[in-house]
Specification:
Number of helices of chain B: 4
Distance between the termini of chain A: 19 Å
Structural class of chain B: alpha+beta
Helix content of chain B: 25-40%
Strand content of chain B: 35-45%
Order of helices and strands of chain A: EHHEEHEEEE
Number of strands of chain A: 7
Strand content of chain A: 35-45%
Largest interface: A-B, 42 and 40 residues
Strand order of the largest sheet of chain A: 1-2-3-5-6-7-4
Oligomer: heterodimer
Largest sheet of chain B: 8 strands, mixed
Number of helices of chain A: 3
Order of helices and strands of chain B: HEEHHEEHEEEE
Chain lengths: 149, 162
């Protein structure tokens, strides 16, 4: 999936075969998102902001925050259902942009609001290098059988 | 009315691309929008096709780069389309007044998966207030079916004086 392996807590890596999870160009190349922590109750990942992430005012494009929120929530949800041979698909993404970011590191963290049998709701916070919140989002995920893929 | 509108449509160079423009003063648009390309839109491969007061359109040729691991378009790409067409519509509306517009809230629902083809995003204004705009954005697949639907709130702000 990515070059550097994130810390994993609370999941059995052999069982979940982290290495077999395919990469996603949108996440790995366009966003440059790197995962730092995978655990049932918290998933963390970061993006080093570059000029490629900017909109015309020279600040990070809202689509970058939405994409971070979507990816963090989806990976967090997918890990929770992987052992049950289920997958998750995003059904809605609601992201608020709170502070502008020009450069530095954006650190995202996903925490579960609701993990149900059919749907999950995850909250994702994205903080700037100075620790202040740049964006906050919520993602609804639908749980499906893996053979639906 | 329709004939007048058609006559009013012209092509402007916005963000380094030829875009159909209707109902806006081209000089103000170019001043407000075309000073630079939009790096993230370039990265995504987004192309604007129409900028007008009541409708903004852009297209995206889906490539494997837009996929998530399951081989369908990543949700962040739809949210990015919603963000781009809505905020560009707002920028066009406020450019002539020397104001800035930036997205503050993006709510996008994903309805059908897309693997390939051209996605078309169309933004229409729900509310164009003095300080906030609200846009409805629909993203359709090449077969015309709705793949994502979003709403974007945009804040209109005065540029900071140095």
């Amino acid at each position: 999936m990515q070059q550097s392996r994130p810390r994993v807590q609370g999941y059995d890596l052999e069982e979940l075969k982290w290495e077999d999870i395919p990469g996603a160009p949108w996440v790995d190349d366009a966003l440059g998102l790197a995962f730092d922590l995978i655990s049932p109750d918290r998933v963390e990942a970061h993006v080093e902001v570059g000029p490629q992430h900017h909109q015309p005012y020279g600040i990070v494009h809202g689509g970058v925050y939405c994409s971070m929120v979507e990816t963090l929530a989806s990976v967090a949800g997918a890990m929770r259902v992987l052992a049950q041979e289920k997958i998750v698909v995003g059904v809605s993404n609601t992201t608020d942009f709170l502070r502008a970011t020009r450069e530095g590191r954006l650190a995202g963290s996903a925490t579960p609001v609701h993990v149900g049998r059919l749907q999950h709701l995850w909250q994702v916070e994205v903080a700037r290098s100075d620790g202040k919140l740049a964006a906050r989002g919520q993602v609804r995920l639908q749980v499906l059988d893996a053979d639906r893929l | 009315m329709d004939d007048d509108r058609r006559d009013d449509t012209h092509t402007a160079d916005l963000h380094g691309h030829a875009v159909q423009v209707r109902g806006f003063d081209e000089a103000a648009l170019v001043e407000g929008m075309a000073r630079t390309t939009v790096p993230f839109n370039e990265l995504v491969g987004l192309r604007f096709t129409l900028v007008s007061p009541d409708r903004v359109e852009a297209t995206l040729q889906v490539r494997p780069e837009h996929h998530q691991p399951s081989g369908v378009v990543h949700g962040g790409v739809y949210a990015t389309l919603v963000e781009a067409v809505g905020s560009t519509g707002s920028v066009a509306h406020v450019a002539a007044e020397g104001k800035l517009a930036m997205g503050v809230h993006n709510a996008t629902s994903f309805l059908r998966p897309t693997t390939e083809g051209v996605l078309t995003a169309v933004a229409t204004p729900i509310h164009l207030g003095r300080t906030q705009h609200l846009w409805d954005v629909r993203v359709t697949r090449a077969d015309g079916s709705l793949t994502a639907k979003g709403e974007l709130r945009v804040a209109v702000v005065e540029p900071r004086t140095p």
